[in-house]
Amino acid sequence: MEMAERVEELRQTLNQYGYEYYVLDRPSVPDSEYDRLMNELIQIETDYPELRTPDSPTQRVGGAPLDAFVKVTHDTPMLSLGNVFSKEELVEWVERIEKDLGYTPTFVAELKFDGLAVSLKYENGRLVRGATRGDGTTGEDITQNLKTIRSIPLRLNEDVTFEVRGEAYMPKRSFEQLNDERERIGEPLFANPRNAAAGSLRQLDSKIAASRNLAFFAYGLVSQDDLVASHDESLDYLKRLGVAVSGDYTTCQTADELWDYIETYVTKRSDLPYEIDGIVIKVAGYEEQEQLGFTAKSPRWAVAYKFPAEEVVTTIEDVDFSVGRTGKVTPRARFAPVSVAGSTVTYATLHNEDFIKEKDLHIGDRVVIKKAGDVIPAVVSALASERSGEERVIEFPTHCPACGSELIRLEGEADHRCVNPECPAQLLEGLIHFVSRQAMNIDGLGEKVITQLHEAGLVHNVADLYRLDRDDLLGLERMGETSVTNLLSAIEQSKQNSLERVLFALGIRLVGQKAASLIAERFETMDAIIAATVEELTSIDGIGTKMAESIVLYFEKPEARELVKELAESGVNLSFKGMKRPTTEGAPLSGKTVVLTGKLHEMTRGEAGKQLELLGASVTGSVSKNTDLLVAGEKAGSKLAKAESLGIEVWDEAKLLDFLKEHA
Ligand code: IVH
């Protein structure tokens, strides 16, 4: 037999055995047989290196450690899910779907795995890239680490090209073994399997990830409506290709059936070999999904039911007060450490003075705490009956804990604020926000380094970041040549960010990421934003008066304008680079905002949208007073009603086709 043929045969057999062992959990041969074949393959590949390929089962570990992860942009954003927390909320969600579609669709109910969302790209059946979700738009290339996960096939059973989305997680048993081992060698323990999985996938050396026994479940395929017509078909299809899919999903026709499924897993959950934090419900049909569409953050066709937070009792040992970016002073309770819903809790915010009064909290009180949405710890109530009389009143400070200036509490506001613009705590928080992932995304500038830079007097405001040189950084504790080089290059790279990141990074009160994007897209340059009036800002759909006033107020301050000038002088890009919709001047639909709804027969709504955009239209998802035209296909529902009530022009499919033909 030709050596190449033997290699191919060994790979196929090993892939099959690996699939049975790691995906199906049903090994068909003893481990020794697997090892024997693997050793043969390793030997051949050593003797004939030209036969080694990246998708060979020998290639799961072994690459050299990386210097840094490369950022990747997701072609299709990785969204998150809206949540429901009760049967009532679930029923409401189902009713909304029924109302939007005009009938009840089939739903798929499946487990919500508690790990990390990842994207796997396959080309001609071969795994070519694995990436983290990141902020949903930009993630990191962690292919080397994902290749170490045995339930992720390096090669599929068919030579297809597509992107799979799923969850990388750490099984409960791997987690216990890992923490036992860490305890033995005196390493800090991981709080829960999700943190442990995240920590493992963040390692630059894939040998570490390989030693952590991670696993993977696929939960979706990115836009493959030519291959399959529904979500459940996509799961079956993935299974056929050799991808790990949990067998626990089911289809349901009613809210009651969905609720039954949820209740089953509230009990079954503790018997599963991995953690789940809820149930995900998806409208099955792809056409229906398309019709329902998306909000800014999540699909309307899916929702997560989150399991109720576990509640436990602990003691408030002390309360400290910190100063945020906007000068807001926040009290935080420190507890005797306690485990809630799988992780250890030591702190929780007490929000403000009113919250403390309303819950009648004292230092020394026994309190009930829970994890809100299973993530953020929150104080539910104090157990007044357990008081000994030793408890102390929580005194709210009258002066800033960071700079000592007097705090103010405005009429009608719950918060105490420090209004000293030079307050070091505010400057520090502002810096931390500026470099954060959602803002300028400067890797390697975490809270610790920023604090060091700030304390060393090297960075006073955000413009100073761009004046740092090698010697400044080498002088810091625990900063070697390589970290300094990486950091300087990350700072340099951040100068190329598009305007919306800079605008968000400035930390203007009330201006979130979404608003920053809308404003940047409309005004295109920072100078234009600085010159904008409240009226101009509020003319953007999604920008309210309060936010507009806050922006105008911010840029009225000479310090703010000076800061922007300094950033520009350092070479920071202050113009919008994002996707501009083609609004070619003079095009027939230039300046027109169009919404598509209902079912079209001659083409999909996506195709129609693209053609309309080519003719200058900007196509959006929801009808508002800014909509100029609604194209309504069959079974158009609430959008049509709304457009009619607003007196917006409505076209049917025939009119659309005529128009497209005329302007082809
Ligand atoms: S679907 C566009 N299905 O939950 C919808 N997500 O907030 C994308 N997750 O970070 C998500 N199990 O990683 C989906 N069966 C499942 C899931 C699941 C866990 C995670 C996902 C994401 C988060 C959604």
Automatic annotation (TrEMBL):
One GO BP annotation of this record: DNA repair
Extract the coiled-coil ranges from the record.
Answer: none
Active-site residues annotated for this sequence? K112
Q: Which residues bind Zn(2+)?
A: C400, C403, C418, C423
Residues annotated to bind NAD(+): D31, S32, E33, Y34, D35, S80, L81, E110, R133, E167, K282, K306
Question: One Pfam family name from the record?
Answer: HHH_2
> What EC number(s) does this enzyme carry?
6.5.1.2
Question: According to its UniProt entry, what is the function of this protein?
Answer: DNA ligase that catalyzes the formation of phosphodiester linkages between 5'-phosphoryl and 3'-hydroxyl groups in double-stranded DNA using NAD as a coenzyme and as the energy source for the reaction. It is essential for DNA replication and repair of damaged DNA.
Name assigned to this protein: DNA ligase
